[in-house]
Amino acid sequence: MNASRLFESDYRKPELVASLRQHITSLFDANGNNHVFFMEVCGTHTVSIFRHGIRPLLPSSLHLISGPGCPVCVTSQQDIDAFVWLSRQKCIITTFGDLMRVPGTKGSLQDARAAGAQVLPVYSPMDVISVAQEHSDTLTVFLAVGFETTIPGIASMLHEAKRLKISNLAIYPAMKLMLPALHAIFSDTACKVQGLICPGHVSAIIGAKAYSPLVEQYGIPCVITGFEPVDILRGVYHLTEMVLNGRSGVYNAYERVVSWNGNLRALDMMQQVFMPQNANWRGLGSLPQSGLGLRAEYADFDVRNRIVFPEPSIMSTSETERGCMCGEILKGKASPVSCPLFGKVCTPSKPFGPCMVSTEGTCAAFFRYGGQI
Amino acid sequence: MRVKKLLSLSGEECLYASDSPIAAVVEVNGVERDVRLDIVDILPKVGDYVIVHAGFAIRTLPPEDALKDLELIHQALEQSS
After folding, report:
1. Across A253-346, where does the E strand assignment appear?
2. CA A84, CA A107: separation in Å to the nearest integer?
3. What is the pLDDT along chain A (373 residues), one digit of tens a residue?
């Protein structure tokens, strides 16, 4: 689900990387190399940091912690189990590919497909319309996961389905909003994160101003940046400068993509179709107004209004019973290497938890690139 | 991804902005694909770049803005040296 990248070579220039690295090192040297903790909250940032070998370039006293920014990873076990249960009913499941391998209590969507369930990976939510049109006698359900970058596209698809009067299409709403999760992390008095690297493409939708409440309530410096090495190091440089000088605020280091007010057309589309509601997050639990439900005029598109689901307690076991530390990893309280399952019973080829499944997952990035915090 | 063509609801090429394009043909590394324009911040022109996420353009980037951040980085580094 990564957004496309522009002018990669310009934002990967080795001499600029070296200069930014030198500036960051100088800031730390001048401040006694005290330990500093930053959180990158976007799964694409996590992967970019590993892929480009950013961590070894940084001072050893600067620690990057991965946050709850992988949409597949934060989807609750109850929702994963509901997806798998749903796939065994008389319907066609459409889903982003990453979700198919996440283990549920009773197998994954991939297992269900191997057993005969109709589970189709899609590239875009808009593809769901053609699937529904091709199978007009069968209910087609889209498993709607994602943050603010993905949600307007899902809203747009439902808007189009309503215009076309497609009655055999529904979604399972499991979308998440980024800001409530960040409030949950920073309101925890044990939180050691001193600066936030904000998600680049979520910010393109919600705008830089969305982070102002975090600055006002927790005094946390926020820097928005892109995904190329120069972008990331620029973000780290400005964040370091703010933290070490005791300043807070929102700094936009991704001006070519992110504006102060965000994408008003996308926000308007989201608001036409969805409204905030409480949501369950893996690791963070139930957070008020952190998810989205369908507005009354779109209620027929909610599969939960068409099919009666079993109680979650019948379908699911808890994460801790499974021995998986994904929840703690998503909160930034544990490193993948501290999980007893990591690299042993949990690997990308046979994942036990979602953070090892998704291409944006922290465990998958640690395993693939051998990273250390 | 660079916009090569704008498309109407019926899939016809839009020659004028007043045709209200709803999709675009974009190209990256020689590969062409269709993207929707329903939620893009500003409708692009042919030759503009767009940031694409899950089949939807979410941001239009005129070529002259694409290197904006590099200029700002150079300025910041010069000031701190």
Report:
1. 274-281, 285-294
2. 7
3. 344 455 667 888 899 999 999 999 999 998 887 899 999 999 899 999 999 999 999 999 999 999 998 999 999 999 999 999 999 999 999 999 999 999 998 899 999 999 999 999 999 999 999 999 999 999 999 999 999 999 999 999 999 999 999 999 999 999 999 999 999 999 988 889 999 999 999 999 999 999 999 999 999 999 999 999 999 999 999 999 999 999 999 999 999 999 999 999 999 999 999 999 999 998 888 999 999 999 999 999 999 999 999 987 666 666 555 678 888 888 888 889 889 999 988 998 888 888 888 888 899 989 988 754 4
Angle at CA of residue A164, ends A160 and A165, nearest 5°: 115
Stated pTM of the model? 0.92
Angle between helices A229-244 and B68-80 (to 10 degrees): 40
The C-alpha angle with vertex B58 and arms to A50 and A220, in degrees rounded to 5, equals 55
- Asked if the Cβ–Cβ distance from B53 to A3 is below 8 Å, we say yes
Question: Cα–Cα–Cα angle for A25, A330, A360, nearest 5°?
Answer: 75
Say which residues have a Cβ less than 8 Å from residue A79's Cβ, sequence separation at least 6: A172, A174, A280
Distance CA B58, CA B55 (A): 9
Q: Looking at residue A346, what DSSP letter applies?
A: B
Show which of residues 223-252 on chain A sit within 8 Å of chain B, judged by CB atoms. 226, 230-231, 234, 237-238
Test mutation, B10, B39, B50, B52, chain A, max A CBs within 10 A = B39
- Interface ipTM: 0.90
No. of H helices and E strands in chain A?
16, 11
